[in-house]
Amino acid sequence: MMKEKTLPMDAIDRLCREVAAKRLLFLAETPAGEPPEIVVDWPQAIPSDAANRFFQLAEGLESIFGQPVTLIELHAVANPARKVEITRHGREVWHA
C-alpha cells in the first residue's frame, strides 16, 4: 500500500468529487506485485449511472497511481466477515 504522505490527495479529491463518492479506504498491505485493494463507499442514493462512475473511479485511480488497482464497492460485499475486515482494517484516505 502507498504511504499516506506520498498520496496525491489533490488528484484523489478531484476524482472522488467528480464521481460523487462518499469515502475511500485502502486495505492492509498487499503482497509485492499485487494491485492495492481500494474500497469505495457511495452515498445512500447511488446515482443511476453507478457502473459508469465505478469504472471512471477505477480508471482514474489507476492513472493516479500508475498501476492497476482492485476497486471494491463496500455495499456489494456480501460476506459479513469480509465486511468486518474492511471496516476494521481499512484506512480511510478520503471522505466527502
Q: Note poorly predicted spans.
A: none
| Overall 3D shape | globular
Name given to the CATH architecture: 2-Layer Sandwich
Assigned CATH superfamily: Beta Polymerase, domain 2
- Secondary-structure element order, as H and E? HEEHEHE
Terminal-residue CA separation: 22 Å
Task: Provide mean pLDDT, rounded.
Answer: 89
How large, in whole angstroms, is the Cα Rg?
13 Å
- Give the CATH topology: Beta Polymerase, domain 2
Structural domain tally: 1
Quickly count the helices: 3
Strand numbers in spatial order across the main sheet: 3-2-1-4
User: Proportion of β residues?
Assistant: 15-25%
Pairing-aware structural class of the strands and helices? alpha+beta
Q: Provide the helix percentage.
A: 25-40%
Largest sheet: 4 strands, mixed
- Assign the CATH class: Alpha Beta
How many individual β-strands?
4
Written description of the protein model:
This protein is of the alpha+beta class and 96 residues long. Helix content is 38%, strand content 19%. It has one domain (4-95): Beta Polymerase, domain 2 (2-Layer Sandwich). The chain contains 3 helices and 4 strands; from the N terminus they run αββαβαβ. A 4-stranded mixed beta sheet has the order 3-2-1-4, sandwiched between helices. Helix 1 (9-18) packs antiparallel against helix 2 (50-65). The chain is globular, with a radius of gyration of 13 Å. The protein starts with 8 loop residues before the first helix and ends with a strand. The model has no long low-confidence stretch (mean pLDDT 89).
